[in-house]
Each structure stands twice: as C-alpha cells, then as structure tokens.
Amino acid sequence: MMSYQHPAGREPEKRYHGFILGLLVQLEGEYDVRSTRESGFGRADVLVRPRAPGRPGVVLELKVPRRGETPEQALSAAARQVRDRRYAAELVAAGAAPVHELVAVFDGKRAWVRKVDEALSGAVEGRSQD
Known about the structure:
This protein is of the alpha+beta class and 130 residues long. It has 4 helices and 6 strands, in the order H-E-E-E-H-H-E-E-H-E. The chain has helices at 13-24, 71-84, 89-93, 116-121, and strands at residues 31-39, 42-50, 57-63, 99-107, 110-115, 128-129. A 6-stranded mixed beta sheet has the order 1-2-3-4-5-6, sandwiched between helices. The longest helix is centred in the middle third of the chain and has 14 residues, at 71-84.
C-alpha cells in the first residue's frame, strides 16, 4: 500500500509513475503500456499505444512541483515538454486516433490533471483535483 508520504526524497515522481503504471497494466491486452519510452525528441513518462490502428492512444507526463513552483506552473511546464519534444510521434506513427495528451501534477494528497491544450492555454476547465 502506498501513502502520499512515500514519494518524498530526491525523485518523488518515480513513486507516482510506478503507481500510474500499476493502474494501467490491465490495458495490456489491447494496448502497449510503456514507461519512459523514446518518442519524438525525448522520453515520455507513459505511452499507451493501441495494438490496432484507429484506436485511441495516450501520452501522459507526470510532475511534482519544484520548490516555489505552483501546480499550475508545473502543469504548463509539463505541457510544453510534451509538445516541444513531440511525445505523441510514436502514437501517430502507429495509427492511434485520436491521441490524448495529458499532464498530471502531484503534490502530497492532491493531484491536478489537464489536457495539454488546456494547460498551454491556461484554462481551468477540465481540472481534476483530489
């Protein structure tokens, strides 16, 4: 069992990353769920690539705010990273349609999730906070 206090230390994103991968493993029959896989000009945190063209794909970038950074700033930075590094390239090449690009920020017990387009535009609708 994981507590929100476990992700402390130098690389807290890794704990959230592992948790998310554990949730997505059930998709393996119809999707390839990959962690830190090279795509575009970098490594996306999580790619969910359909095994059959024409099915949806997902790019997911995870962040923990740095000291002094707000969750909104972390969401914007993650969204720019997804776009600048073209993480969706592998999914597009595999025929995924549509491709959903999402960013998630974790801070203790709270989480924020946005579509990349919303995070880039600064929109607050579609926000998920727990």
